[in-house]
User: Fold this.
Amino acid sequence: MSLSKLNFLGYSKSWWLVLIAGIVMVLCGFAYWFWPVAGYAVASQIFGWLLILAGIVQLIVATGPHFPKGWGWWIAGGMIDMFIGFLMVRSIILSEEVFPYFLALIFIYWGITMIISSVNGHKGKYWWLYLINGILLMLIGFFFVEAGWIQNMEMVSFLTSLAFIYWGFSICMFAYDIKPQVGQGN
Assistant:
């Protein structure tokens, strides 16, 4: 196998589940952008359920019959997403107070994952997109830390809608990257 076909997180026949999760994130981001009156509590609850969904998708991909090369990263990400999602769904007060920090941790985690992928394993001609995506995801995470620290809910609401949209598109792009190529075993 040539270096241009290596992928840090491998390939999976369940790539379409990842694509659906990305599309749902984009739709929720636009819904929150256009209907912010729905409230901060509703957004944190929706995000909690989306994290649970994203975690389930990651676990399905990691434990499927044709699990990807980086299945450990998939399981770790899925468990973290599900844990945070269940915490947010369980308590509205908790989710409102810590929503920006949970988002910060998630975006920083995914940013680090994308940077590692760009430097370590993804040697295709678009490796630099992973690097830029990782830096942007980490930057969004640090903005959430700042928004939570100063208790600026308007900034958190704006960042949340943008983050849903950006993260959804990022997941959709990633889904096509893990799609097995024609004639590939996984």
Remarks:
- Confidence is low (pLDDT under 50) at residues 1-8.
- The two ends are 13 Å apart (CA to CA).
